[in-house]
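Posting here for the record, re: pyridoxal-5'-phosphate.
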Amino acid sequence: MNDYNGFETLMVHSGYEADVATKSVAPPIYPTNAYVFDNTEYAADLFSLKKGGNIYTRLQNPSADILEGKITALDGGFSALAFSSGHAAMFNTIVNLCSEGDEFVASSNIYGGAINMYGISLKRLGITCKFVDPDDFDAWENAITDKTRLFFTELIGNPHANIADIEKISDIAHNYAIPLVVDSTFNTPYLCKPIEFGADIVIHSATKYLSGHGQVMAGLVVDSGNFNYKNNERFPLFNNPDPSYHGLVFADLGKAAFISRLRALIMRDLGSCPSPFNAYLTTMGMQTLSLRMERHSKNALAVAEFLENHPKVEKVNCPMLKSSKYYDLAQKYLPKGTSGVFTFELKGGRQAGAKFMDNLKLLQIVANVGDLRSQVIHPASTTHSQLSSEQLNASGISENTVRLSIGIETIDDIIADIEQALK
Ligand SMILES: *Cc1c(COP(=O)(O)O)cnc(C)c1O
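Prediction output follows.
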């Protein structure tokens, strides 16, 4: 754009310049499914990837393109691809790197939906996920075999907001020529850019803070361009000529290899593209990302401090508190805050938790996080209810765990509501 590259400047301006046809200040929505080809030769060049350009909205769309440009700028990546949901972004990333018989290693402290996808649905396709305690570096290393294709972790784990030491985990991965994929849904690039700490691929559920207003399902994959697939024995998928592109070797595309294959093969075949309207809404949300993340984090810290001093509360798991075992890691990776999400444990078990939630008037009971509105849920009976008791233990979720996603409302009102509900 120009020499002005501060985060907030990129947040407002990157990805879009006043469109030449209309001079529209705000990014337009392009609700179109296809594009006019000037002539047949031009069309043929697009189809054979000789030229870049719009063919069909399953593969690319100008509204998605603006969003992809913005997240690439904010995360400091090389390129990005937008999806219909965070889960689609995750599934498509895994199958871009793995085929039947392959393995990957993932943190056990992650979103319950990810544990199901990785542990059960991918297994049915012949892809095996080994779950490890993210704090146990030997466990990461010991899980590696010749078939390992990637490491996966959330930087801020859902629901407990445990912090993964991604610099160490990326060192282990890179020693074995394995890429590290980091789910950045809770941190967003404003609180931390994992690529600066060795992540090769960053995934966002843009459903949460990036879109930010509780309206959208969307996912994003950002590639750093730093991982070398060429001649890496773990990646025949990138090094063998591809029969559906006349023998193209994707690794030969260098920094563009990962996203090109993700778009041209995986998106082409699986079709999890975002709607132009959702891409547009996500771009709108991202223009105010820093303001919201500051307020979410500040409000969450105030609530965590209030709860920590409350006699009915057994434990608060918030990495912004000095009492958290993740405090030092949070200071290292997330000095501006750790978002609005954390958990706490009420004295009195599941019943006390249910009573507390039913008494809330401002905070809503919702199976989501990252909304402007303050929201609460009981993971053991909802978001993580499909997990076995063993898996619940591994994610540190108990019957009396309550997850909060603190919004941007007036902090006195949020605390007053929690206080009266506890009473
Ligand atoms: C919600 C969530 C997802 C899944 O994203 P969807 O947009 O709901 O498909 C993945 N990772 C984390 C950390 C999440 O919170």
